[in-house]
């Protein structure tokens, strides 16, 4: 599975407005970013490490909220999703209602300027949001640093950060998150072969806040 690079942040709203209309028309939740195996990979890691079901989980850039629904189905009870796009939060609210998952909290939030109440999470999950910020044509280097600072603020000490990326290698992500985080594990992802060289189309890492 080869995911396309995420669009720049400016086009997210329009994309989610289309997906919201599609969901209202035919009940289709839209694209699952990085495919279903990316959600399975995250949930398996949480289960393998016996992460308590009452742990507070933040989904950064929740989009259609499907990952939170799958976490809720797996028994996780303290779930929050944020997205800077109001259309995305509207869509995820409708998906939540359809699935009957009333314990999922959803909020319009810009992770680069999080509200004070967004804090104290045991686990933060990112599937493609850091990628999208990295592609922003305006001041991407500064925004990546701001993202790391926001992550430090919202995640508890020794909390876990699970990131899935198609833009960054393991080494690049280690460098981006070197301040305040240490790598715990690299999760297996699909591999591809091109010109006789084998590489990963997707990188999935687990960090722990120092």
From TrEMBL:
GO BP field: methylation
Reaction catalysed?
A: L-lysyl-[protein] + 3 S-adenosyl-L-methionine = N(6),N(6),N(6)-trimethyl-L-lysyl-[protein] + 3 S-adenosyl-L-homocysteine + 3 H(+)
UniProt xrefs under CDD domains:
AdoMet_MTases
Q: Which UniProt keywords apply?
A: Cytoplasm, Methyltransferase, Nucleus, S-adenosyl-L-methionine, Transferase
Signal sequence region: none
GO MF entries: protein-lysine N-methyltransferase activity
Q: Can you list the GO cellular component terms from the UniProt entry?
A: cytoplasm
Top-rank taxon of the source lineage equals Eukaryota
Q: SUPFAM superfamilies given for it?
A: S-adenosyl-L-methionine-dependent methyltransferases (SSF53335)
Query: Domain Methyltransferase spans what residues?
Result: 56-185
What's the protein here called? EFMT2 methyltransferase
């Amino acid at each position: 599975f080869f995911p396309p690079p995420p669009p720049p942040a400016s086009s997210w709203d329009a994309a989610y407005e289309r997906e919201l209309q599609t969901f209202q028309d035919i009940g289709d939740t839209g694209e699952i970013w990085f495919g279903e195996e990316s959600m399975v990979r995250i949930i398996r890691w949480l289960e393998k490490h016996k992460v308590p079901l009452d742990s507070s989980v933040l989904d950064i850039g929740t989009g259609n909220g499907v990952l939170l629904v799958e976490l809720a189905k797996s028994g996780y009870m303290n779930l929050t999703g944020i997205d800077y796009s109001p259309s995305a939060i509207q869509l995820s609210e409708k998906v939540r209602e359809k699935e009957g998952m009333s314990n999922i909290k959803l909020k319009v939030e810009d992770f680069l300027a999080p509200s004070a109440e967004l804090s104290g999470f045991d686990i933060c999950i990112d599937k493609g949001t850091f990628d999208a910020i990295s592609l922003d044509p305006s001041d991407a280097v500064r925004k990546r640093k701001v993202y790391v600072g926001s992550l430090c603020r919202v995640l508890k000490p020794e909390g876990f950060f699970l990131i899935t990326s198609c833009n960054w290698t393991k080494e690049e992500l280690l460098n981006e998150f070197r301040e305040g985080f240490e790598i715990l594990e690299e999760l297996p992802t699909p591999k591809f072969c091109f010109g006789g060289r084998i590489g990963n189309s997707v990188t999935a890492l687990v960090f722990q806040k120092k």
